[in-house]
Amino acid sequence: MDTRSRFWRRRYYDLFSHFYDRFIRLHSRKDDSGTRSFLVDNAVLDHVEKPRVLDICCGTGAVLSAFANRYPQGTYIGCDFSHGMLLAARRKDSTGGVTFIQGNAACLPFVDNLFQAVSCSHALYELKGEDRAKALYEMKRVIRKDGIVLIMEHEVPTRPLVRFMFRLRLLSMGSADAKEFVESGLKPFQQVFPSVTLHHTPSGRSKLICCRSHPATGVGPR
Predict the structure, then answer these.
(1) Residue 25: φ, ψ to 5°
(2) How far is CA 26 from the centre of its chain?
(3) What CATH code is assigned to 3-212?
(4) Which residue has the higher pLDDT, 89 or 175?
(5) N or C: which end of the chain has fewer CB within 10 A?
(6) Digit-coded pLDDT (tens) for 164-178
(7) What is the model's pTM?
């Protein structure tokens, strides 16, 4: 993505940060907390004393709050390129245990094999194709060999108003590229990770793609 396009996309998300949580509540119909719990459950971190978790494109920080509430001894980092989203996330963080940094998902400022879990919730389809592929390889790089990458994405909405808003978002970020990714299933993940599984949330409004650098042994998705 060129510098000018990145600038305007960042401005778009800075503005969208003022409405983001309301949009998510409208789409999920108050099921967003259950969706986050589903993601945290599938991280399977009960056996880790002090887990390190990274949330990419963290938005307003809801996923990391769910992790921090479940595992208060962990280390949690949220990364987003939007200053507005990060401001909203810092205001919302009631745990005081989450660090938020401004950065690029396609070039993460972390060493290899650092995190037990890396998550990206309802955001990967918003990246451009090249940045999206680089972001997946970056997730694979920073995850521990026994760690897990959790990608939560929307199912295509069925309610007319929410479906219309969803399509507007696809249009705003380059409809053809985003639409191709939404319809491509597990293929983009299987091109990067040797172990990929698909799970649907109980509400049916989101899907969770669980990715590992190596097949899991002894633990598995819930």
Answers:
(1) -65, -40
(2) 19
(3) 3.40.50.150
(4) 89
(5) C
(6) 666 666 665 554 666
(7) 0.80
